[in-house]
Amino acid sequence: MTTPSESTVNQIMQSDTFRITARSLSKELHISIQDAETELITEIIEHRHSLKDVQQLLSGRQRAEVNFAKKDLIRKQHKADNAYMKLFVTDQDIDGNSITENTEATPARKSAYSEDEINRALMVIPMAFTDTTAGFINDVLVKGSEATKASRNMSTSQFNKKIKQTIATAKDGNARKRLDVMLKSDVQLRLEENEKLARTFIDMINDDAPKEWINNFLQEALDNKYFDEAFDLTSFPGYMVKHWDEDSKARKDGYIFINKVNELTGVSDQ
């Protein structure tokens, strides 16, 4: 992994984006600007590799990366509270017990999201909500519920009321339409990728692709859970993969496999 050169690091630290972001981080973490600059540039060097090559001015993507580095540092500061997003989790269970006072003791009520999902949400939220609502959601995702309540001087009831209002907004109107189009979970993205793989397989069959190509595809598909349902319907999956279309035994399972993959991709319904 290549680290930025000394001149690149200096360019980053001298940029307006870095200086403004460092000042903001200083206020968020209640540390000196000098310490904030040190923390921020260290985070950038270690984790934000698109900044290893900087021209005279930071690109739009690179400016966003500086901001994401700041958000990552804030999340780490509040790591016990924001290892999981609690935007759609109220502060109390049905018995009135707190579920945010000790998040580590209540794993069943955590809503786990990956770092990639959080970063995608942070990028999309400003385009789907008003500045006020987007700011509130951003605080919850980055800081966690307890830190958000503290920074905004909100009681538990006020916080829960705001959460309910935010959920209602997210489910209705233009915000819902934008979120449906722009914000996708890791699961959704994996499903879309697997559906593309399945359609590629069907195209290979329709185009009479070489047997070697199909064998290679099926070998990889054996390790992909998306295709398990199709393999499970066959009587001799290993034989089918190795002897694709060579005899009646392999051909019979091949037809079953193809039909199920067609069903998975929705081709059979068209």
Give the tags:
elongated; 15 helices; 270 residues; mainly alpha
Briefly summarize what is shown.
By secondary structure, this protein is an all-alpha fold. Helix content is 67%, strand content 0%.
List segments where confidence is low: pLDDT < 50 over at least 5 consecutive residues: 80-111
Q: Which whole number gives the mean pLDDT? A: 76
Strand % is under 5%
The helix content is 55-70%
What class do helices, strands and sheet pairing give? mainly alpha
In DSSP terms (H or I, runs of 4 or more residues), the helix count works out at 15
Q: Kindly state the number of beta strands.
A: 0
Shape: elongated
- Separation of termini? 47 Å
CA radius of gyration is 25 Å
Largest sheet: none
How would you describe the overall organization of this protein?
By secondary structure, the protein is mostly helical. It has 15 helices and no strands. The chain has helices at residues 6-14, 16-29, 33-47, 60-77, 79-82, 115-128, 131-143, 145-151, 156-171, 173-182, 186-206, 211-221, 228-233, 237-242, 248-265. Helix 3 (33-47) packs across helix 4. It is elongated and about 75 Å long. The two termini are 47 Å apart.
Helices, strands, pairings?
Blueprint: H1 6-14, H2 16-29, H3 33-47, H4 60-77, H5 79-82, H6 115-128, H7 131-143, H8 145-151, H9 156-171, H10 173-182, H11 186-206, H12 211-221, H13 228-233, H14 237-242, H15 248-265
Helix pairs in contact: 2-3, 2-4, 3-4, 6-7, 6-10, 7-8, 11-15
